[in-house]
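step=encode ok
step=design start
structure_in=
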């Protein structure tokens, strides 16, 4: 509830993530979703994202707030990464079955509360006019921010949230099965969070991180990790925290895409310059190889 109210003043992502927690019954679970329409669902989503990619601000050079203005070639190189992530996430979920079951589990009072919060958000945005942070902005900017560099969303999220996102990829099959067994409020909030993470503006998605971490803890709680694995991951997390990187050693002014401002903005996907992207990409790839080396045996088991 609090996150939804805060979302009215900041990002509408918060309000979307809070919707399932307010609306659905706490114990509602879809035990055996049907996958008959999965190919149709996924194809429709991929086509919609492709259309947004070609019609959106990244391809047309109209990104907002001094963010990266990727070339058309860069967007074309980035589109496969975007579509690949969504394809991995949406397959074998049984969205139609879950939506049907979800309608039977809707709490009318919770729906009214969410509608009032949504109206409150709309009024706040109108009062703050001109404000670009509407629901259409969510759709277009989420896709656009995924296209400033190839695979930038994962690079940005791993850099911002730490190596826990790399574990999520490594154990995806186990995590996905756990997600499907979650009660509807947790399933939908987590699924919405993961879907919105196709975009690369990590700070706008931080409200969804607790859902992702919860699913990960539930899925991996049976793992028997030895001491060196735990210590290694702790050291990796400390390295990713970048406490060693001062961002205020001098005047923080100038262009966002140039240093010294890049010391801060290189951690946000849409503001990641080419140099910042390459540095973060090297960090994430190196860390990914390290995580694989540390956890590959338990991942196979």
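sequence_out=
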């Amino acid at each position: 509830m609090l996150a939804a109210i805060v979302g009215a003043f900041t990002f509408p992502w918060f309000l979307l993530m809070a919707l399932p927690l307010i609306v659905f019954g706490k114990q509602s679970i879809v035990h055996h979703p049907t996958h008959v329409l999965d190919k149709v669902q996924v194809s429709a989503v991929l086509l919609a994202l492709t259309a947004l990619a070609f019609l959106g601000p990244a391809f047309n050079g109209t990104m907002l707030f001094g963010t990266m203005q990727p070339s058309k070639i860069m967007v074309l190189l980035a589109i496969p990464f975007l579509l690949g992530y969504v394809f991995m996430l949406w397959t074998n979920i049984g969205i139609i079955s879950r939506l049907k079951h979800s309608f039977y589990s809707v709490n009318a009072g919770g729906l009214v509360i969410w509608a009032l919060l949504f109206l409150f958000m709309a009024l706040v945005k109108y009062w703050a006019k001109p404000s670009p942070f509407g629901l259409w902005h969510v759709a277009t900017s989420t896709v656009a921010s995924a296209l400033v560099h190839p695979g930038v969303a994962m690079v940005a999220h791993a850099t911002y949230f730490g190596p826990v996102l790399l574990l999520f990829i490594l154990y995806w099959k186990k995590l996905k099965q756990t997600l499907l067994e979650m009660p509807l409020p947790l399933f939908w909030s987590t699924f919405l969070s993961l879907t919105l993470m196709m975009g690369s503006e990590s700070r706008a998605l931080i409200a969804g991180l607790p859902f992702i971490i919860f699913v990960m803890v539930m899925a991996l709680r049976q793992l028997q990790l030895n001491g060196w694995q735990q210590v290694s991951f702790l050291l990796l997390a400390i390295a990713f925290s970048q406490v060693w990187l001062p961002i205020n050693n001098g005047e923080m002014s100038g262009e966002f895409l140039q240093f010294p401002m890049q010391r801060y903005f290189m951690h946000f996907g849409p503001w990641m310059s080419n140099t910042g992207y390459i540095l973060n990409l090297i960090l994430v790839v190196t860390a990914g190889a390290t995580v694989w080396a540390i956890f590959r045996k338990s991942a196979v088991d």
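step=design ok
step=annotate ok -> The chain has a mean pLDDT of 84.
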